[in-house]
């Protein structure tokens, strides 16, 4: 319910989505120019570019997920909703996750077009996107909630989120590289398993800790 | 004897190094309308937020409906806090805001109910809240209260920005809630407090 309402609000305002998509387009353009026309270079850089762009754009969206409440001063009303406050986190997480997956799919197509990522392997790429995107959004939604009342929340969000998501980004880049260079399926699966473990551990911790951190 | 509806005992709350509430105690019985009076900065809004379980005091206890406030997760829907100014989603219309608020509280309403409540407080339909005046926002908060039917209504300076008609409706809503529950309101207006409150609580003296 909360995720649907946030999607509706985002659709009416579109500020977060427009910023994130514009950011992605700019990053891809600059990186594409920087790595030059050499196919081998671009192929090697593609997975890194994909996940770096997704991580930064994801932080923008995570901040946006909570900024809706700050801009409208509705955080208190949300906290007064009956039921445990973990569900507020889960609602925000779902909202962010949906946006991340849509944005990630869009990004995959762009990176495939410019950085020679094999779109023929789209099921594997999509699994990596879902597992990596989940780990990322779990952390980003949590820290965005933690910093929502602070004035320097946007800066703090980057400082807090990036050290925590490093293992997720590394595993996701490794899995994507494996797919790009036709590695053994078992090797790709081993990175997926690692991402799955991160997702479960981070999700459990964030759900348990959230009610304590959101109160003033 | 039944437990008080609201029981705040020896509550201390500080922001940074500044103590806002010092050893404050207050009990509110069912049927009471208690007006918190006092100058700016004395902690009226903070006390409302402590009662609403939105902020945790450093010391002291808060019990609502006879239970510790922290154990009220499922019953938080019995509490309504109307901030000053009331908060709504600006991109949504008044009726959409009402529908969303009630749906999140687990009591979905039909569009007709939302429009009926808005008509009662004199609000037009189909207009985004961004285009509302302060008084219209207050009226929309009244409509939300009417639909939510809380047992404990917490109001922060509810009379400000309301015209005579809005003020009359506010008095009626306070009376309706107090019949089954209790109302705690923060105000600077002693005349308004005398008009609606069954008891006043001077905060400068306690804090």
UniProtKB/TrEMBL annotation, chain B:
The keyword Iron does not apply. Residues 6-207 form the ABC transporter domain. Keywords: ATP-binding, Nucleotide-binding, Transport. The keyword ATP-binding applies. CDD domains: ABC_DR_subfamily_A. InterPro entries: AAA+_ATPase, ABC_transporter-like_ATP-bd, ABC_transporter-like_CS, ABC_Transporter_VariousFunc, P-loop_NTPase. GO terms for molecular function: ATP binding; ATP hydrolysis activity. Coiled coil: none annotated. It comes from the Bacteria. Gene3D superfamilies: P-loop containing nucleotide triphosphate hydrolases. PANTHER family: ABC TRANSPORTER ATP-BINDING PROTEIN ALBC-RELATED (PTHR42939). This is ABC transporter ATP-binding protein. The lineage of its organism: Bacteria, Thermotogati, Deinococcota, Deinococci, Thermales.
């Amino acid at each position: 319910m909360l995720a649907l309402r946030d999607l509706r609000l985002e659709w009416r305002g579109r500020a977060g989505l427009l910023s994130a998509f514009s950011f992605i387009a700019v990053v891809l353009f600059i990186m594409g120019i920087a790595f030059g026309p050499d196919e081998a270079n671009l192929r090697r850089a593609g997975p890194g570019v994909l996940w770096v762009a997704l991580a930064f754009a994801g932080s923008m969206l995570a901040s946006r997920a909570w900024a809706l409440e700050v801009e409208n001063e509705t955080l208190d009303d949300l906290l007064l909703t009956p039921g445990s406050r973990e569900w507020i986190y889960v609602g925000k997480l779902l909202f962010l996750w949906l946006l991340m997956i849509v944005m990630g799919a869009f990004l995959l197509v762009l990176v495939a077009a410019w950085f020679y990522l094999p779109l023929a392997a789209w099921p594997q790429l999509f699994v990596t996107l879902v597992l990596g995107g989940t780990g990322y959004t779990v952390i980003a939604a949590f820290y965005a909630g933690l910093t929502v009342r602070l004035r320097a929340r946007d800066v703090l969000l980057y400082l807090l989120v990036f050290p925590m998501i490093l293992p997720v980004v590394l595993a996701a880049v490794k899995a994507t590289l494996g797919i790009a260079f036709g590695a053994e399926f078992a090797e790709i699966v081993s990175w997926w398993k690692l991402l799955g473990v991160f997702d479960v551990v981070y999700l459990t911790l964030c759900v348990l800790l959230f009610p304590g951190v959101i109160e003033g | 004897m039944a437990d008080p509806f609201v029981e705040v005992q020896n509550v201390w709350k500080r922001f940074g190094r500044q103590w806002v509430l010092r050893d404050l105690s207050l009990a509110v019985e069912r049927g009471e309308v208690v007006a918190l009076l006092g100058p700016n900065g004395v902690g009226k809004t903070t006390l409302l937020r402590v009662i609403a379980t939105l902020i945790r005091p450093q010391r002291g206890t808060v019990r609502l409906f006879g239970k510790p406030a922290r154990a009220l997760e499922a019953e938080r829907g019995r509490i309504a806090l109307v901030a000053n100014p009331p908060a709504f989603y600006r991109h949504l219309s008044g009726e959409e805001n009402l529908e969303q608020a009630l749906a999140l509280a687990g009591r979905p309403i039909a569009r007709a109910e939302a429009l009926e409540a808005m008509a009662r407080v004199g609000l037009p339909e189909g207009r985004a809240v961004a285009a509302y005046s302060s008084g219209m926002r207050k009226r929309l908060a009244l409509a939300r209260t009417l639909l939510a039917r809380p047992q404990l209504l917490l109001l922060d300076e509810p009379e400000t920005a309301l015209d005579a008609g809005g003020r009359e409706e506010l008095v009626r809503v306070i009376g309706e809630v107090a019949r089954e529950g209790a109302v705690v309101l923060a105000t600077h207006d002693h005349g308004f407090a005398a008009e609606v409150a069954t008891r006043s609580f001077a905060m400068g003296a306690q804090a």
